[in-house]
Structures are given as C-alpha cells and as structure tokens.
Design a protein that fits this description.
The complex is a heterodimer of chains A (about 260) and B (about 250).
Chain A (H helix, E strand, L loop, with lengths): L6 H24 L6 H11 L4 H23 L8 H39 L2 H7 L4 H39 L4 H11 L2 H27 L4 H34 L4
Helix pairs in contact in A: 1-6, 2-6, 3-4, 3-6, 4-6, 4-7, 4-8, 4-9, 6-8, 8-9
Chain B lengths: L1 E10 L2 E11 L4 E5 L6 H8 L7 E6 L2 E2 L5 H8 L2 E4 L11 H5 L1 H6 L4 H14 L15 H13 L5 E5 L7 H18 L2 E6 L2 H7 L2 E6 L2 E6 L1 H5 L4 H8 L10
Parallel strand pairs in B: 3-8, 3-9, 6-7, 7-8
Antiparallel strand pairs in B: 1-2, 1-4, 4-5, 9-10
Helix pairs in contact in B: 5-6, 6-7
The chains are: A mainly alpha (about 260), B alpha/beta (about 250).
Chain lengths: ~260, ~250
Amino acid sequence: MTLFPNRFVEEWIEGLGRLVLLAKEAVASLLTFKIAWRDLIYQIYFVGVKSQSVVLTTGAFTGMVLATQTYLQFHKVKMDTATLAVVSVGMCSELGPVLTSLMVAGRVGAAIAAELGTMRVTEQIDALRTLATHPVDYLVVPRLLALIIALPVLTLEAVTLGIGAGHAVSTYLLGIDPVWSWYHMQHYTTTDDLIMGLTKAFIFGGIIAIVGCYKGLGCGEGAEGVGRATTEAVVYASIGILITNFFLTLALARLLNVL
Amino acid sequence: MIEVRELRRSFGPHRVLDGVTFRIEKGESVVIIGRSGSGKSVLLKHLIGLQQPDSGDVLIAGENLRGLSERELIRVRRRFGMLFQGAALFDSLTVAENVAFAFRRDGSLTERVIAERVAEMLEMVDLPGIEDKKPSELSGGMRKRVGLARAIIYRPEIVLYDEPTTGLDPIVADSIDQLILRVRDRIQTTTVVVTHDMRSARRIGQRILMLHDKRIYAAGTPEEIFASADPVVRQFVEGVSNPKEVYF
C-alpha cells in the first residue's frame, strides 16, 4: 500500500526527507569541530576567490540596469534623486543575495554535484567509507562551511559594486545630482537591509551546499547519472533559493520589525 | 572471524542474494568465485557494511553489522582494508596522500612517521619512490598496487579484494596474486578475494566458495573444486559456454 496516490509526490517527499537528514548529519558533524582545515581553505578558495568575476559582473550590471529602469519611472514623477536609494535597498535586501546565490548555484553547486557524483560512480565514496571516514565529515562539511562563509562576502561585494555602478550610471549617464542621490541613498538604506541580505546569503549558501552534496552523493550510475545529478543540483538549488527567499523575507521583516 | 547467515538482498524486483550462508575463520584465505553479475561484489560489500542486507546477518568477530549506523560501522571498518575493482584512488590527491589517508584523518602520527610508513608500504607493493605522482599518471596494475598499499597501511585484520586481477594482463595479474599472498603472510591477515579468474583463485585460495543461483552453490579446497564432477562447477572451471544458453 502506498501512502501517497502519486509516485512522483512520494519520491519528492522522500527526497526532501533525505535532504533534511543530510543537513542534520552535516550540522551535527560541524558541531564536533573536527574540521579538515586544508580542505576548508581549498573550498573557500574555490567557492569565494574563483567566483569573483561572475559575481562582480552580475552585481555591477544589475545595479546599472536597476538604476536605469528606476530612473525611467521616477523621472515621470520628478523623484530622480531617489533612484539610488531604490538601487541600494533593492541590492542589499533582495537582488544582491538572490542573484549572487543563483550565480554561485550554477557554478559551485554544479561542480560539487559533478565531483561527488564522479567519486560515487568510481567507488571513491565507498573507498572513503572503508578508510573509516564518514563522507559527511570529509566531503560535505568543508563545502557547507565554505559556502556559508564565502557567500555573504560575495554578496557584500556584489552589493557594493552594484551600488557603485548604479551611482556611476545615475550621475554620468542619467544626469542625476550625485550629492542628493547619495544623501537619499544613505537616508533610506538601513542596517536592517544589509542584515537581511547577509542572512539570506548565509542560508542560501547552506542550500547550495546541501543540495549539491545530496545530488552528488546520491548520483545514479555512469556518465548519465553524473550529468543528471549536476543538472538537478543547479535546478533544485535555484528553485530552493527562490522559494526560501519569499518566506525568509517575511520572517526577517517580522524579526527586524520592518513589517 | 566472518560469519554470514541467510543473507538476502534485492535491487528493486531483482533478487541478487537469496539465503547466502558461510563462515570464514581467522587467518584464512578464501576466494569467492562466480559468473559476472552473480552478486559477488555485492556480497563482498555486505561484509564491510557498505551495503545493508534486506534480511540475514553479517557477523564480524561476533558483532552483528545489521542495524548499525554509518558512524558505528566506522569502528568495525577499522578491522578491514579493501581493494576496489578500479582501485578507487582519490584522484585529487597524490599517491602519498592516498596511501596516508587513514593516518592523516586519524591525526595521531607525526608527518615524519607517516612519510616513513608510506615509503614502507610502497616498497612492499614494489612501487618505491612514486609518492608525488597523481593517480592519473599510473597504469592499471600500479593503481591496484597503490590501492592495496592504502588498504593495508594500518595493518587491518581482514583484507577484501574485489576482482583484483580484472583488466590486467596475465603477467601483471600473476604479480598481483603474488602480492596478495605476500601481504597475507607478512601482515597475517584474513583474506577474502572475489574473482572470476580461476588461475588467480587456485593460487590464492585455501578454500573456494562458488556463488551461483543467488547462493553458495559449492565450497571446498581448490583441489576439490577443480576436481568437482558437478556440471555447473565444471562449466565454470573450464570456462565453456553453452550454445543453448543466453549469457547477455
């Protein structure tokens, strides 16, 4: 007898359960503080340093296009100097963390799933287990830690560059007064916006790591299995980020007393 | 040392092992033979807890592996070393890092002692001085030797070999067989080898178990197995296909 009428729903709920169990195991392992520092530093380098160009480009062009689009609307009601404030608040609390996370999910989430998936199909995960090493301790924890450390930093970079690029476009291309623009930006952007953005980045980092590792460790046989795991890691992490973002926005707004 | 009782395992609707029962004594060399796809590797992975049975028990030195969590199994696996079919070397690490893996994770030895032990193990598998090479630079036979060095560096009580000579030419295969015997004699291990290479089985095994039709079909010394009059055993030993049977 099946509990759920639809096999797809049943598999989906089972997968979600396994994902939560992996996250629980990873957090429990993390709390033992037996961290492989060398692996952690390499992972931070891979996640943080190697993602710079992608994240900075995304941040800069998002800030620029957001400034342009906001100006096009605000100009109609003569609120030109509030343009940068919208860019700043938008980048800090939403676009910075979400777009950075989506770019990192594409680059790092896929790489994690592909690496762990290949290790699985070549029996390297089994070899790890025979060498009295828990795969979660050795493979998942360094990646999880690296992502929850690096993603807030990357988000901060994207936000800074986005606001800077937005300011440059406002001043030099759209002809908005830079002093008023900067004044309004400082007036309307609060620490809460930044806290919200960085908290989101921290949680999105966890989602990318856990989904990537889950898909890699549970990868099917052969090249097809690795390919599927990689695609699914990116798709599920991205969807997870977008869905979580909404609920996180509501929860954080309530928590920070802005709702 | 190893006891398997009524082991059953299915993958979906396909039953692979159906009531497998045998015992392996401490210090014994046992070879498990059987056709490709007969479940030999699956059986071997049950012995070290890499897979869990649907029913039945696996006892290692009296301790039942059934129902143990992955973290509890880590303690049991310290008794084991395992050589995988494709060696399963960590390709992001050098040979020395691969061989020293268990020690580095353990963290109880100094780097100098670890380097000495790695050199000693590589010497034992006839590959001295290749510490800094990457697995991708090694041939199939060399990879298996490094895999064996990694499995035996902490002197386990039981060493499992999954198809150690598959994919190797007869001369390299013979050298791997000699190496398995050398490891058994020097480290005094219980040896379990899964293979379909009958030459290898004859050389290594003090006892041969034949897995057929999802269970242990025949058991005996190499002499008994090679002299068996049973048609299934004879067909496997002589390696003769039946034109009326579909093999693929």
